[in-house]
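COURSE: Structural Biology Practicum
ASSIGNMENT: Worksheet 4, Part C
STUDENT ID: 0417
INSTRUCTIONS: Below are two proteins. For each, the amino acid sequence is given first, followed by its structure token string. Answer the questions at the end about the second protein only.

PROTEIN I
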Amino acid sequence: MSDFARPSTQTALLVIDVQESFRQRTYFRGDDLPAYFEAQNRLIDGFSRLRLPIVRVLHVDDDGPFSRGSGLVRPMAELAPFDEALRVEKRAHSALAGTPLAQWLTERGIARVAVSGIRTEQCCETTTRDASDRGLQVDFVSQATLTFPMRHAGGRDYSAAEIRERTELVLAGRFAAVVGVDLAGVAEPFRIASNQAAAAGSAPPFDLRIAGAAGEVRTSLPVALARIAPLPARLPRDAWVVLAGISASAHPDLVHGRDAATVKWLEAVVAPAVRAGAARVWTVCSGAFFAARAGLLDGRQCTTHHTLIERLAAERPAARVQANRIFVVDGPVATSAGITAGVDLALHAIGEKLGQAAALEVARELVVYHRRAGGDPQLASALRHRNHLHPAVHRAQDAVLADPRSPWTVQRMAEAAHVTPRHLARLFHENAGVAPLDYLQHVRIELARALLADGARPLERVAERSGFSSAHHLRRVWRRLHGSAPRAAAGHPS
């Protein structure tokens, strides 16, 4: 943590109302759940690693799904487990009203809280205002809050993204610091790759530098990123410029002067280097807006966080914005959807520069899936079809990956996804670009490929361990998918 100011122990994370009760509300929608839980769980992990207190707040009523008797006043299944420093039950919108939370914070000398949870504009916003009025410093972690489309009393419908934006505009500056949850995830793979190369006696392939228009910036955790170098007047040859996302950068009304300075630097220094083939640009989440405003996305395919897709397309019509993509590479410019997608993009870049074996080693150290198979110039089949954001399809794919040898049928996969078989088939075609059972065969072939590469085994044994009924079945599917025999994977007799 040499590049970070050590956070004060006088800080706590509030996880507000992330409870099963909400699934019973008529307004509940699951479209944003994957992105929300990715951000929320990343935030919880950060606080846990720093050994900072996390408070669970649950809402209770006398009847309905928020009553104790409903059995639904419990954490949502997708929420990461954590050690509760305190659990409180509230009846008002503010977590500080009528609960022991305020006294608990005072007794422990906690002067700062990070607010996250459900719903953005209701209990999260009210708690933020109340905490600020009580003299606490507040970080409103917008990406780690969830809300749903709502109809205003006047009859107008508001999307979840519009509600979140309005909440940020109300809170920013007056009540709280509105910050994103993006961390150094995109930088860590490059650091690990350099360390692994040095350990093997080679020169580090990456010289990691952090530069910006300000010498210190706040992050979504109670940590300041300090000792930031000034933006350079010239780039080194073959530079990779990574633009990290911050929540405010996606909203023109919240852009700071230093953000405008960053765009000017991209126009004056980075864009000419990209055109000359001397530099590449990578963006994470809303970092795409910096690149877009500098003209770097004009005429290129690109993506950003799914809640910002329409805004990016509207702000920069010349950019070819792609929805439902984890990352997109178009020539010297690559863009990613955010948070863990930045890690996927970094692994992709490392694989291009150092080879897939090196990228696989980095992925193993990070304990994440590597989306490219060693020795394979394309994305690994089992993971290529996960370059989408639909939760039901991911549920089915998770179930298959957990036990690929199981006798899967479309019916069983649909049960795992909580949809009908016909609906699952349509969702797979629309989001994964493949039929459910074809996806299963891709997964099994990848498993067979790994077994073949791992050592000499009879093909019949490989077929059995990867879910095929026989070696003949394995050969037939392998030839259909790859146009060759299994022996091509590792010189294996077939």
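PROTEIN II
(use this one for the questions)
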Amino acid sequence: MAVSPESKVLRQINRLLTTFGYEVTTSRDLNLNSLQYPSPQFLIVDNESLDDQLRPLVGFREQHPAPYPYVLLLRSETLNHEIIDAIDAGVDDFLEKPLNNAEVLARLRAGARYLESRQERDDLHQTDQITGLMTEGAFFRVLKRQTEKSAATGCCVLMELDHFQHINSAIGWTASKEILRAVAELFRDQCQENYLPAKWQAGRFSALLPDAPLDTAREWAEAVRQEITECRCITEIESVRLTASVGIGVWRPGSDTPSDLLKRTETALEYAIDGGGNCTIATADVESGNDNWLDEQLFANAKAGDIMTPSPLLLDSIETIANATQKLKHSNLDAAPVVDDQERLEGVVRARDLASSSSVQAVQNNPVRALMTDRIARVREEAPMAAVMQHFYDSPIDLAVVVRDEKPVGLITQEDLADLVPPGELEAPDPSPRSAGIDPDVTVSRESLLRDLRMSSVQGLNLGDNAQCR
């Protein structure tokens, strides 16, 4: 962008730079509003009569630390004190009038070298403060440069920690940051030398896999997902079991923009999340035309541990109702498992029951087991999703506790399952062994589950006897 009150100067700059392949805009006034992102790479300012307009560059750089334009100041004569003032205002270099075309081009080349070096430095150091990975913005710029290469191939991977927002609400941001750091370290360690990992918002991570075909990207993503599933993050508050959903997008040379690639990758990730989480989906799966692939993903692979909401909050059966009320209120949970001194499941207490007792001061110091119910469904972590679905369909319950070695690790609600089932009738697969508890003649539908849920909320639920999906 060239700024000068003289039309002759603007014409000369425009003619010279367009001849050598630059895109040029011109203006008679230095209007910083025109420099909003994306700002021009170079700004040539004729300061003969613009002294009062140069000073705003200081404020512009304070508000827009990067990327800001490389500023060249054009003057007939520049005194030493003016040079100091100009540099303090944000000027990077100087040009003298009358303009020498060769000098203008040489100084622009020098500026381009500086901008390229600054970009590389920013990409290297523009890291997420929590995880040490690239930020989302830095990742997009790297993606843009990679995909601009004529022979560019490869895949983009997006990964989201399942139920991270819920985990964050339950254990707090300080403990959640520990989880993000642990996952980032695992994510980084799994990357090959040319893979480019980054941290996105709210429990999301990304990686660019240059030159990797889909099979390689899928194998890598599955290895990362499996590693996350097998590890437990130990925070100062709680040991948390994690799962992750992964989406993979394949770069289409010649037709894709970086935004196109990211959009398709995010669509694949959304399918993975909608499929119950803890799985990997590629754009090729979504675009294959097989309408049954999501159903197969849901019923063939998903386990109770994959679809549960992790329960980081466990209430000791002997702690007071007052303390339990505060913990549930802080965590924004509707219910929490109650455990004994060995962390084995005893029952569940609901926020609504605690709230109803809050007006009775005499019971606030009573142990929380006085309000818990032990008439709950216990679901083994490895139970097939279809078995869990069938159990909810057959039993008048709206909540199940997922257990591992008799210790609670998560919760499943009837509404959670209903949201996972796509519209239409889905037949539960024939169980093997039959002890999975599924009747192959029963057809489960999202509509029937939601209808049952609405009826339960109107009539009130009568929890059945202890039950266990195996």
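ANSWER KEY EXCERPT:
Q1: The domain at 2-125 is CATH 3.40.50.2300 (Rossmann fold).
Q2: The radius of gyration is 30 Å.
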